[in-house]
């Protein structure tokens, strides 16, 4: 039934709409299973994701032994006694959606923003430009006008394909991603313009060219690897093979600087002003938006009780969940805020809402600024002094952006004058080595030895496919030591967090090579799924390590931040659960789309109504 291509190596839930039906499906790569739920498109079933996840987990766990012994195909002839389990899970899922129904925030599709998006999308498809639904700031209006034509044609084509199969009015996943990306860049460019010098060709920049630089599948010419040499050859890339401007993104940035994530908080997100007279409504209408606005009970100078705070906390919890913070973590966060504030005497002119909000904001900033900060450049210099390469290992599931962000980090290191050896230790996924080779060539084209005193700034160390990744990493590190490379970046094969043999292999690679930094790469996009991956990666590294003090994940690379608009909750969940810092944030597909985390910016986006 599924005519859309199934993503091969992802663990998330996907959907496919055909005429009146929507199918949601989930792949389990470990056991080669597909779980599909079909339902009438017009039904907005909020529990489908939960149902499919629960069925997946329960089915997998129930038949795990058989799968391991016979494989998924071996079970085809068998019978499953799963009907009762399924009915129970279905009931549970239905019940859970009912329980949550009254408190659930508006979904993205129901929100005003999504309507705005539909308009944007319509404009980009060549129709007469329409007036923006909401134009809060005049300064943004000019930009917004040009933004309408900024949707890459490639994406539009993909959208068209998808919408041909489905409902035109319903946003496809790609459309939502595209919209979020636009929104991200709109904000980012605005913020960037504020803090940096104005761009001379800003007009041109605003009408962004479509990003055709899609590694891996779009450009046959780029993907012609037939002439490539192996084992660390540092060929330069013929210039016509790629557009350096596109690979670089923002031309006006300062080379080598890792900019902070910037986020412009909305008018709606402005701090609620102190209400001086409780009997009069606040002069600033809608100060905190619908979310907190209705809860402005003044407490005067009495001490805060649980009863005062509970309605506010409930709203905040839902708000956090709607921003993609894992539900359990949202609950814990609100609980800790309540504990902190209970019994506290409030100032006369303070509202419960603003007090709770302030405490939550502080807690969130603290979570995002874990005690151990990772300063890669300083640590690389330290390793240099000891005449050894600084080694970073990247791990994560497939498709999250490991290789792309590894390449961005290489670029940043090179711009800081450090030479990089990329160790191709994903010896598993077809095309993984070639993808890194393409990056190596491009990076060398952007930073040829001539510009670096004859020094080759980036090289690929690879041994093809099927070999032991830990061994290749080890060889690469010793090669880097001998050749005087400053940094070794080890790409590893994507693996699902539940795949015990592959997790053991990763633990071995890390134990044997003792990298300076183990980075977990996770998408901001998937929210709770990323948290699950991270927790399980960490646990698996602990469980499968042979060392007495196992080496765990040191930090996080949070990718695809440009695709989530203000649903930044994954950043909170991931740092909360592991206390590990987010070292890098991926914000797009060019080499410059790398940022460092700015806790305040993330919290501002999170609190935004
Ligand atoms: P890997 O399998 O983990 O190595 O993932 P890849 O590096 O191949 O990336 C998978 C896809 O995600 C590619 O199409 C990348 O261009 C894209 N990607 C990676 N990082 C980002 C990011 O920060 N933003 C966006 N929008 N796309 C990204």
Describe this structure in words.
This protein is an alpha/beta fold and 609 residues long. The two termini are 40 Å apart. The radius of gyration is 25 Å and the shape is globular. The protein has helices at residues 48-74, 83-100, 112-124, 141-147, 153-165, 173-195, 202-206, 244-248, 289-293, 306-322, 327-341, 352-368, 376-385, 402-415, 432-446, 469-483, 500-513, 528-544, 569-578, 599-607, and strands at residues 13-18, 21-28, 33-40, 390-395, 420-425, 458-461, 487-492, 517-523, 555-559, 582-586, 594-595. Among the domains are: 15-99, 2-Layer Sandwich (Beta-Lactamase), CATH 3.30.450.60; 307-368; 376-601, Rossmann fold, CATH 3.40.50. The model is unreliable at 1-12, 100-169, 191-240 and 267-296 (pLDDT under 50). The protein has an 8-stranded mixed β-sheet, sandwiched between helices. A 3-stranded antiparallel β-sheet has the order 1-2-3, with helices on one face. 44% of the residues lie in helices and 10% in strands. Bound molecules: guanosine-5'-diphosphate. Residues 214-216, 396, 398-405, 494, 559-560, 562-563, 586-589, 593 line the site of guanosine-5'-diphosphate (GDP). One of its GO terms (molecular function) is GTPase activity. Its main location: endoplasmic reticulum. This is SRPRA protein. Residues 261-271 have a biased composition (Acidic residues). It is found in: Endoplasmic reticulum membrane.
């Amino acid at each position: 039934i599924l005519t859309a291509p199934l993503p091969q190596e992802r663990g998330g839930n996907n959907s496919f709409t055909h005429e009146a039906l929507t199918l949601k499906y989930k792949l389990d790569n470990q056991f080669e299973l597909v779980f599909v739920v079909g339902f009438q498109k017009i039904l907005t079933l909020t529990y489908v994701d939960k149902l499919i996840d629960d069925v997946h987990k329960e089915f997998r766990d129930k038949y795990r032994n058989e799968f391991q012994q016979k494989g998924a195909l071996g079970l085809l002839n068998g019978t499953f006694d799963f009907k009762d389990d399924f009915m129970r899970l279905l009931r549970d899922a239905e019940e859970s959606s009912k329980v949550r129904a009254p408190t659930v925030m508006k979904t993205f599709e129901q929100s005003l923003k999504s309507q705005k998006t539909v308009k944007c999308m319509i404009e980009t498809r060549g129709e007469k430009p329409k007036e923006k639904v909401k134009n809060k700031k005049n300064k943004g209006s000019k930009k917004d006008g040009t933004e309408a034509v900024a949707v890459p044609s490639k994406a539009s084509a993909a959208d068209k394909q998808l919408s041909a199969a489905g409902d035109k009015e319903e946003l496809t996943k790609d459309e939502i991603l595209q919209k979020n990306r636009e929104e991200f860049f709109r904000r980012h460019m605005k913020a960037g313009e504020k803090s940096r010098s104005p761009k001379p060709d800003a007009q041109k920049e605003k009408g962004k060219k479509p990003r055709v630089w899609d590694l891996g599948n779009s450009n046959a010419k780029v993907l012609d690897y037939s002439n490539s040499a192996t084992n660390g050859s540092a060929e330069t890339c013929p210039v016509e093979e790629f557009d350096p401007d596109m690979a670089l993104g923002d031309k006006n940035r300062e080379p080598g600087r890792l900019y902070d994530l910037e986020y412009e908080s909305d008018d709606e997100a402005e701090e609620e002003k102190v209400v001086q007279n409780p009997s009069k409504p606040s002069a600033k209408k809608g100060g905190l938006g619908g979310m907190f606005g209705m809860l402005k009970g003044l407490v005067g100078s009495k001490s805060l009780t649980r009863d005062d705070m509970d309605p506010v906390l409930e709203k905040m919890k839902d708000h956090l969940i709607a921003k993609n913070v894992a539900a359990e973590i949202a609950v814990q966060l609100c609980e800790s805020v309540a504990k902190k504030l209970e019994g506290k005497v409030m100032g006369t002119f303070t509202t419960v809402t603003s007090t709770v909000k302030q405490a939550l904001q502080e807690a969130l900033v603290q979570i995002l600024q874990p005690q151990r900060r990772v300063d890669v450049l300083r640590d690389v210099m330290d390793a240099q002094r000891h005449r050894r390469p600084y080694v970073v290992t990247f791990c994560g599931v497939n498709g999250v952006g490991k290789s792309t962000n590894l390449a961005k980090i290489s670029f940043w290191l090179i711009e800081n004058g450090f030479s990089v050896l990329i160790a191709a230790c994903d010896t598993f996924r077809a095309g993984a080595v070639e993808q890194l080779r393409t990056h190596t060539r491009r990076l060398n084209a952007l930073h040829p030895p001539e510009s670096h005193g004859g020094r080759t700034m980036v090289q690929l160390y690879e041994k093809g496919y099927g070999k032991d990744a830990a061994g290749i990493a080890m060889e690469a590190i010793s090669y880097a030591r001998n050749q005087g490379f400053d940094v070794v970046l080890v790409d590893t094969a994507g693996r699902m967090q539940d795949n015990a043999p592959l997790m053991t292999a990763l633990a071995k690679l890390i134990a044997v090579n003792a990298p300076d930094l183990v980075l977990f790469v996770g998408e901001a996009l998937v929210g709770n799924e990323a948290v699950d991956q991270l927790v399980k990666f960490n646990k698996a590294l602990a469980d499968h390590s042979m060392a007495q003090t196992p080496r765990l994940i040191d930090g996080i690379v949070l990718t695809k931040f440009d695709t989530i608009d203000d649903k930044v909750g994954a950043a909170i969940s991931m740092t909360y659960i592991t206390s590990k810092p987010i070292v890098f944030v991926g914000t797009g597909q060019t080499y410059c789309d790398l940022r460092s985390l700015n806790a305040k910016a993330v919290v501002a986006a999170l609190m935004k109504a």
